[in-house]
Design a protein that fits this description.
Number of strands: 7
Distance between the termini: 48 Å
Largest sheet: 4 strands, mixed
Strand order of the largest sheet: 1-5-6-7
Radius of gyration: 26 Å
Order of helices and strands: HHEEEHEHHHHHEEE
């Protein structure tokens, strides 16, 4: 199948007059390897790059430690991520990045890690109606199936949107060739492009969570299927396999977005609305 694409050719007259023209593809570009002798040898250059890369990795590894919900707790007030802190007594809490810098930037309150776990368990139990189940064996099978099929489901959603976009491009190009109005087709294409753009970050976050899904799947396989056995492993790392991100409305109210795109609201407002939340 062939596609016809139309592009606007930018004018380069002004750049030619000013003498500041830069070849950005309007003329053929060529890459010639080993065209001239370098200041240092190629072998020395490549060795230096390897050392720089190794040191960069070691520096990052030593400086940053990631936790299950690093970059996945989002402040509803300012949109920044929450970061994990541990005080001298060993108490762990998460604080909004903007609030850490200044309370003038964001008034979000810190959240204890204990509270995060409590609300996540509430969300997990609500999502799977665990209080109405009498046999964990069926739930274990359902959870294992979800994790095993998660990537295929994501890829299917991605492919459907790409096919929709290709159809819109074909229809739009055909209309241009036939000198027909394209406004409606452009709006439809833009709608799909916006949908793909919104989904792209979720897809990227999903891909980064592969290890969490594999570990949670292994833990489910180790269960014997006895009544209430899942409640024994409902910790942050286990539940993380199903969570894309959490919007923190307040320390008492979360909106959890799951790997299938659905959302669950857990907790409740305490003392009124949270910083203008609706």
């Amino acid at each position: 199948m062939s596609f016809i694409y139309f592009y606007k050719i930018p004018s380069i007259l002004h750049q030619l007059i000013c003498g500041s023209i830069v070849n950005q593809g309007h003329k053929p570009q060529y890459y010639i390897e080993d065209h001239h002798e370098g200041i240092v040898s190629k072998e020395e250059f490549e060795k230096v790059q390897e050392i720089i890369q190794a040191k960069s990795f070691e520096s990052k590894k030593g400086r940053t430690k990631k936790y299950p919900f690093t970059s996945r707790l989002v402040c509803s007030s300012c949109g920044k991520n929450f970061h994990r802190f541990k005080d001298h007594r060993g108490k762990v809490s998460w604080r909004c990045h903007s609030n850490v810098r200044s309370e003038l930037l964001c008034k979000a309150d810190p959240i204890s890690e204990v509270q995060i776990k409590k609300l996540l368990i509430e969300g997990f139990e609500k999502r799977y109606s665990m209080n109405k189940r009498s046999n964990d064996g069926l739930l274990i099978k359902q959870l294992m199936k979800e994790l095993a099929n998660a990537e295929a489901v994501r890829e299917h959603e991605q492919n459907l949107l790409r096919v929709e976009l290709e159809k819109c491009l074909i229809a739009e190009n055909k209309a241009i060739l036939q000198n027909r109005d394209t406004e409606e087709l452009k709006l439809k294409r833009k709608e799909i492009e916006d949908k793909i753009a919104a989904k792209t970050r979720l897809w990227e976050d999903f891909d980064k969570d592969y290890e969490f899904r594999e570990e949670s799947l292994r833990r489910l396989q180790d269960l014997k299927g006895s009544d209430k056995s899942i409640s024994k492993i409902l910790d942050l790392s286990f539940m993380r396999a199903w969570v894309i991100h959490i919007t923190v409305e307040s320390p008492y109210l979360f909106t959890i977005k799951w790997i299938d795109g659905n959302e669950t609201v857990v907790g409740k407002f305490k003392g009124g609305l949270f910083y203008g939340a609706k």
